[in-house]
């Protein structure tokens, strides 16, 4: 967990996104406390009519096909302590290799932490669209990878869209277990109420390649795992009232990270290094309402 003092110290002089990322580390565990058990969330009707159309070709894409450092024109690394690790921009922690983005957590001391890892965000921000990534999670205890979009304003008022998070838990921590892909939306109010019961849990083979996606439109957000729709959230839902739907006007950046500890529980140092692998990331623009 991130201590309050650590959060405030690092947030000074940081961009709104970086401050929001630090707060996210602090509150996510609290948001997850009431989640007990491992039953999968019920799937929505796959025949639910589509309200929106997205472009056939991506406007943002990284296939990670050139070995070496990440493309600095597309991505910006975050640096500093997060949870049980220090995030760095070093190629040992974040690089392109063998056709994949590799975010690697390592057992090495840095900035007062026992481990290092990485988080990257897009230099470009987005307002609506379809976002997808093909990913393979680490399964060492205490690893917490995520693919998400976060507000460029205050958190959680400006909204957070978690396309997928995975908690590789060695024991029973907050009722979480390895092998569940979790999607979520966060918005006002803070802490326990920020997810507003919009968490979706889908059973996956965490050590295999899976594709995770979200379709973000002005009045509807849909989540997918391997092209199967797993959740639909709408502005008209009761959970979206009273500040619960900031997703109409607030741009967000795309992030990929491998955090350690927090709700994922104790980190297994003997299992290091651990890698989050990403085959590709693509973003498709929103075209307009279906049938228009």
What can you tell me about this protein's structure?
The chain has 292 residues and is mainly beta. The chain has a single domain, classed as Jelly Rolls (Sandwich), CATH 2.60.120.200. Helices cover 9% and strands 42% of the residues. It is built from 2 helices and 20 strands. The chain has helices at 4-11, 16-32; strands at residues 52-54, 60-62, 75-78, 80-82, 85-87, 94-97, 100-110, 113-117, 119-126, 129-136, 143-151, 160-165, 180-186, 200-203, 210-217, 220-225, 228-234, 252-260, 274-284, 286-289. The strands form 3 sheets. Strands 2, 4, 5, 6, 7, 8, 10, 15, 16, 17 and 19 form an 11-stranded mixed beta sheet that branches. A 7-stranded antiparallel beta sheet has the order 3-9-18-11-12-13-14. The protein has a two-stranded antiparallel ribbon with strand order 1-20. The termini are far apart.
Percentage of β-strand residues: 35-45%
> How many individual β-strands?
20
Tell me the number of helical segments per DSSP (H or I, 4 or more residues long).
2
- Oligomeric state of the chains present here: single chain
Helix content percent band? under 10%
Shape: globular
CATH architecture assignment: Sandwich
- Please report the first level of CATH classification, the CATH class: Mainly Beta
Order of helices and strands: HHEEEEEEEEEEEEEEEEEEEE
Distance between the termini: 48 Å
How many discrete domains? 1
Low-confidence stretches: 1-36
Instruction: Enter the CATH topology name.
Output: Jelly Rolls
Rg result: 18 Å
Query: What's the story with the biggest beta sheet?
Result: 11 strands, mixed
Which structural category fits the helices and strands?
Answer: mainly beta
Query: What's the mean pLDDT score?
Result: 87
């Amino acid at each position: 967990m991130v201590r309050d003092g650590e959060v405030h110290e690092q947030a000074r002089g940081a961009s709104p996104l970086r401050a929001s990322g630090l707060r996210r580390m602090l509150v996510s565990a609290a948001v997850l406390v009431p989640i007990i058990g491992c039953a999968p969330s019920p799937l929505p009707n796959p025949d639910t009519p589509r309200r929106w159309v997205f472009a056939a070709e991506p406007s943002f894409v990284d296939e990670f096909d050139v070995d070496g450092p990440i493309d600095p024109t597309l991505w910006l690394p975050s640096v500093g302590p997060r949870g049980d690790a220090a995030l760095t921009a070093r190629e040992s922690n974040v690089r392109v290799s063998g056709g994949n983005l590799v975010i690697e957590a390592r057992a090495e001391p840095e900035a007062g932490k026992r481990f290092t890892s990485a988080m990257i965000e897009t230099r470009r921000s987005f307002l609506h669209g379809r976002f997808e990534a093909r990913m393979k999670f680490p399964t060492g205890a205490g690893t917490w990878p995520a693919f998400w979009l976060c507000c460029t304003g205050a958190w959680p008022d400006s909204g957070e869209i978690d396309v997928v998070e995975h908690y590789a838990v060695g024991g029973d921590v907050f009722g979480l277990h390895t092998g569940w892909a979790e999607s979520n939306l966060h918005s006002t109010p803070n802490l326990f109420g920020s997810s507003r019961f919009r968490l979706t849990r889908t059973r996956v083979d965490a050590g295999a390649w899976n594709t995770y996606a979200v379709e973000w439109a002005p009045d509807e957000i849909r989540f997918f795992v391997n092209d199967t729709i797993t959740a639909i959230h709408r502005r008209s839902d009761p959970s979206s009232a009273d500040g619960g739907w900031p997703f109409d006007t607030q741009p967000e950046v795309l992030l990929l990270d491998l955090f350690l500890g927090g709700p994922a529980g104790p980190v297994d140092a003997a299992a290091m290094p651990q890698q989050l692998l990403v085959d590709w990331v693509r973003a498709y623009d929103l075209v307009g309402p279906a049938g228009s």
